[in-house]
Task: structure prediction
Amino acid sequence: MHDLVIVGGGPAGTTCARRAALNGLDVLLIEKEVHPRQKLCGGALTQRVTELIDFSIEHAVQTDFCGGRIYSQSGEFLEGSLKDYTGYLVDRKDFDLLLLQEARKAGVQVEEGVEVVAVEQTKTGIRVLTVGDSYKAHLLVGADGVNGVVARLTGLRDRWTSESVALCIATDIPMEQDEIVRTMSMTDSEFLGIDLHFGIIDIGYGWCFPKKNKLNVGIGCRMDKAAGLRDHWNSFLKRVEKLKDVSLKVPRRSAFRVPFGGRTRRHVARRTMLVGDAAGFVSPVTGEGIYYAMLSGLLAADVASEAAEMKMPYHLMTYEKRLKESILSELNIAAGLSEVLYRSRKNVELVFSIARSDPKMQQHILDFVGGVRSYSQIRRDMVRRMLSRHPLKTLRLRL
Result:
């Protein structure tokens, strides 16, 4: 009988497993795939992600970045470096493997290549049934992503609505290092930046992230706006080629879903908590999910440890409270800003016109994208600045 079983071996699950094991729990992690496994993702780690990590990630880092460019539909862009800031770009197969290895070092029992097919409640705990075996535990954490089964099997969610999940198309394009430096360096600087393109698709954006010998390029939008996404993808590739004066030889592309509707749902069932993408903890503006995955994993691990020590499973409700005080409050603010930005493509252009004429507003936007400060601080500063310096444009935005 384990203290805790975690289903899913991505950043949320491995972070939760490691913290719980370090807290003294007997932890089993079940992962459907075998690491290292391919996971197409931009792989951007903001600085606050690294602040959650207490071990070296050097071997998983492809390159670092210190700022970026934010493009509007017209092709104009805001560019800026973030003071005393370093973000990292990783391949998810390397990063996720590193996190799994660190969980093992902490004493976590890992079962890979094992698919969960059912979850049963017992008098004293949870039974997790897999293909050919079963495992018992006092508590369960669902960290099995957007397509995970734990939320459905425990009654926390039947499916994602089209308004609460995004559809993305992305690929890794091989590119020589000198070409990456030429196309992705910041203006008048040898430092690399990331590119985000807003206004090119309804309720979504495109991105270009430089890595060691490739460029990660993708586009995504809310599922209910995804009709014609392939055409937008092809147009976006042509746009990047023109802006960067580069020819892109695109290999096989992949499509995947990203959930961002977790802020309005329950995340705790009997003896069960959801973390990361399984819970829908993704920014509806920037698509950042790794930070929220790891933070929710840490929160769930601490709550599970407290519940085990007190022998009180219903203590898991504390997890909901801690989410509201941290992740959910941020995601609610992001959702409000998302409604303003994505209300129309005219709003995107208006935001850019304000930022181009106001360096402080430009810095607030870069801080938001880079996760430099809390969203509550950034929103407060942005609203004050807009009302004092741009009242008429604020009315047009309906901020």
